[in-house]
Write a structure and sequence with these properties.
Order of helices and strands: HHHHH
Strand content: under 5%
Shape: elongated
Helix content: 55-70%
Largest sheet: none
Number of domains: 1
Radius of gyration: 21 Å
Number of strands: 0
Number of helices: 5
Length: 145
C-alpha cells in the first residue's frame, strides 16, 4: 500500500513520484532542449533528435494510458461483482446500464451506501464527479496507479 492517508473527494488522486516528478520532467526537458538545439544547429541529426524525442514523450503517455485503461477495466469488473452481491435483486439487471465513469466513481462508496447511490446513479444519470461528491462514507482506493 503506497499511501495510507485518509481519502475523500478533495484528496483521492495519487502521484507516482518516479513517473510524475522524474521521468516526465526529464523527457519534457530533453524534448525542449532538442528543439532548441534543432533551431540553433539545423540539420538532419538535430531534426531526427526532435522526432525521436516527440516519439519518446508520446510513448511515455501511451504506456501510462494503457496501464490506466487496464486498471479501469479491472475496476469495472470488480464493481460489477460487488454490485451483484450488494444490490437488491430488482436492480441487478440494471447494472449493465452503469457507465464506465459511474462504475469507477462508485468504487469509493462504502458497502452500506453503495446500493442507494447506485440506484441514484441509474435513475438520475449521475456523472462520476457527482457520484463522488455524494459519497458520505469514503472507501479509500490506495492501489490506484
Amino acid at each position: 500500500m503506497a499511501d495510507a492517508s485518509p481519502q475523500n473527494y478533495s484528496h483521492y488522486t495519487r502521484y507516482d513520484p518516479l513517473f510524475h516528478f522524474f521521468i516526465l520532467p526529464v523527457f519534457a526537458i530533453t524534448l525542449i532542449v532538442s528543439i532548441v538545439y534543432a533551431f540553433r544547429r539545423p540539420g538532419l541529426h538535430s531534426a531526427w533528435l526532435v522526432v525521436f524525442m516527440v516519439a519518446a514523450v508520446i510513448l511515455i503517455f501511451k504506456v501510462r494510458l494503457y496501464s490506466l485503461k487496464v486498471q479501469d477495466r479491472v475496476i469495472r469488473l470488480e464493481e460489477r461483482l460487488r454490485l451483484m452481491t450488494l444490490l437488491d435483486p430488482s436492480l441487478r439487471p440494471r447494472i449493465a446500464e452503469l457507465t464506465e465513469g459511474q462504475l469507477i466513481a462508485l468504487r469509493f462508496a462504502s458497502d452500506g451506501e453503495l446500493p442507494a447511490l447506485a440506484a441514484r446513479a441509474l435513475n438520475e444519470k449521475l456523472a462520476g464527479p457527482e457520484i463522488k461528491k455524494a459519497i458520505q462514507q469514503w472507501r479509500a482506493d490506495y492501489w490506484r496507479v
